[in-house]
Specification:
This protein starts with 11 loop residues before the first helix and ends in a 26-residue tail after the last strand. α9 packs across α12. It is elongated and about 75 Å long. The strands form 3 sheets. A 6-stranded mixed beta sheet has the order 7-6-3-8-9-10. The chain has a two-stranded antiparallel ribbon with strand order 1-2. Helix content is 47%, strand content 13%. With 415 residues, the protein is α/β, with parallel strands linked by helices. The C terminus is likely disordered.
Length: 415
Amino acid sequence: MGLLLNVDYGDPLSLARGRDVLRRAGVKAVGVEEAVDAYYLHYRRPIFGGRAGNEVWARFIRLYVNSSYYSAVAPLCRLNHRASREAAVRLLRAFESYLLSLEKRGRAWFGRGSQEAWVEAMRQLRRLFGDPADVSELHRVFKKLGEVLGRGRRGDPASLALSTASDPRRARLASLLAKAVDLSALLGDPLGDMGKVEGPGAEFEVSHGSFARVKRAVAYAKALFVGALPVFLHKAASSTLPVRRPRARGDSGVFLLVDKSGSMYSAVEGVEKIALATAFALAVLKRYKRARLRFFDVEVHRVEELGDLVDVLSRAWAGGGTDISRAVEAAAEEAARERLRGYSLVVVTDGEDDAFSPAAAREARVVFRDILFVVVGERRLSGVRQVFLRPPPLVAVAPQAAYDFLANTGRGSTL
């Protein structure tokens, strides 16, 4: 019997989930019962009253449930399998680390030992879960980012927030992505007529959103509102409500290359270049159905969904050089290999690459219908068609009030 009265510890599904959590956690100090506790503690609202086989585990869980960590994590996990599994794995790892530290200091629970045990428990929880405020902020940003991308079902913002929150770069990542989402909303169609072919204007496609887009709900969502209000509210709260969003018709295809080298993490007029570049990419992905996104530094990184975007932006944070020519060549090779007909290549970069050769762009014209370089900052590239992307001076002072920034355009020599 475990800690929770509203869990059947002999149920095959409960046991399977517990074993899965135990395997993913890779811990030796607990068994399946504790793993089931850790999972259902997050998956549903717990009803305590059971007896744990491990008294130290029971005390640790009481500390956790009464902490700010549980208050931040639990609401994200309710009825969410992936998020509950991620939280359970982190809780078991925190407990095992906690046990190892107690072994060194002795397992005293009274007087000074009790206080030390509490401090150590909080330290291990913070190490595995991150700051509670960061968990909530990352979840908010990832939900909003998923709505912008129109991929609310392909990624789980809650589990992604939990897996990212313990990263020491989390605060900067959250700030960058939040800024990029806000900026992208004001860009409209960032490429104008470049990525379109002849045809009627806009049409709608089914995407996923939350209360912010409830006016665009499809007929199925409206039926849920009338006949199954709890399901409607759950889908709206989790950004999986079927809604319509406009997209360009006659979309000829856009292949996006976005520079993520170290120089892109510097600021231009108070705004990180990578935030501007990511905002541009999000605006294109939102507008164009046939769009491919790749980030590059000295290598090219594939981005297919929300989790990939977060991983690419955080995995090699502000590191590495820039090889624009190699990225253009790789894009041309991929387009030729996969027979991407009629695509335009758009390279978003700050141009900080002294080895860049316009010849690579000229050769890529064999594969791409058009090529455009979007330069973030002031550096001008020679021998290519380019426009300049920069924020207005006001962004550095009042970012929320001045995100209408699609740049003054300038032309270099055309290909």
